[in-house]
Design brief:
The chain is an alpha/beta fold. It contains 9 helices and 10 strands. The strands form 2 sheets. It has a 6-stranded mixed β-sheet. The protein has a 4-stranded antiparallel β-sheet with strand order 2-1-4-5, covered by helices on one side. The radius of gyration is 18 Å and the shape is globular. The mean pLDDT is 89.
Length: 247
């Protein structure tokens, strides 16, 4: 088995006296589509915020490609290859779809100084157009982000995340607030993206991810409960007890 792309080792996160995560350990293999699921209050959002660098763990370690990144500044996560999209859409509403993606690409280009000044704008425009095409928004490149439908704004945010060419893409409830039609489009995009890079979703819709992900990790009351394939999770007695009140 290859080296895990992301390892979470005995991670605990406290907010005062409240323990949001308690000694969670899990490893993510490269190239896999994995979902973190659990009932409300399971600790999914806290887990997402810890592994995306927003919160430093109170205890425990986080490793990315074998490197200890515990407590690394959040902006450093994108630099090393971790990108994220949030449950609440995080786009520049007053800019066009193309401008949003171009700004994201420009931030990466300036950080790494990969482009010569005279070539930079043309390259950034081409990159932004390619990313909009990738997420199905090419026809809406000039539309103001505020005027996009909710599902389209989520797709735009993913294009912005992809501008950093991440090895690992973290997605927090990517279908939250979407219509059934928008959900189908987003699920299709997630599957396509999972062929190119490692994806980890945080999701509360257990039925949705059962047909989408190769592997599921279940949290409950801030603790690790189970992991496995969809069939293994579906037949897990502890998971059935938590979700269905069985046992």
């Amino acid at each position: 088995m290859s080296l895990p792309i992301l390892e979470v080792e005995n991670v605990t996160k406290r907010f005062g006296n409240f323990v949001a995560l308690n000694q969670v350990s899990v490893a993510f293999q490269p190239g896999k589509l994995t979902a973190i699921i659990g009932p409300n209050g399971a600790g999914k959002s806290t887990f997402f915020n810890v592994v995306s660098g927003l919160f430093a763990p109170t205890e425990g370690r986080i490793r990315f490609q074998g490197r200890d990144i515990t407590g690394l500044a959040q902006h450093e996560f994108a630099r090393i290859g971790i990108a994220k999209s949030f449950q609440i859409t995080n786009v520049f509403k007053q800019l066009s779809a193309h401008e949003n993606v171009r700004v994201a690409a420009q931030m990466r280009a300036s950080r790494f100084a990969l482009l010569r000044p005279r070539d930079s704008m043309k390259a950034l425009i081409e990159q932004a157009d390619a990313l909009l095409e990738r997420v199905g928004l090419a026809a809406l490149r000039n539309k103001t982000a505020a005027d996009l439908a909710h599902g389209q704004q989520r797709a735009l945010e993913i294009a912005m995340a992809l501008a950093s060419d991440p090895l690992l893409l973290l997605m927090d409830e990517p279908t939250a607030g979407m219509s059934p039609e928008e959900t189908v489009v987003m699920m299709r995009l997630i599957v396509e993206l999972s062929q190119e890079r490692t994806l980890v979703l945080v999701e509360h819709k257990m039925k949705l991810v059962m047909g989408l992900c190769e592997r599921l990790i279940v949290l409950h009351h801030g603790e690790f409960l189970a992991e496995g394939t969809p069939d293994e999770i579906r037949n897990n007695s502890d998971v059935r007890r938590v979700y269905l009140g069985e046992g």
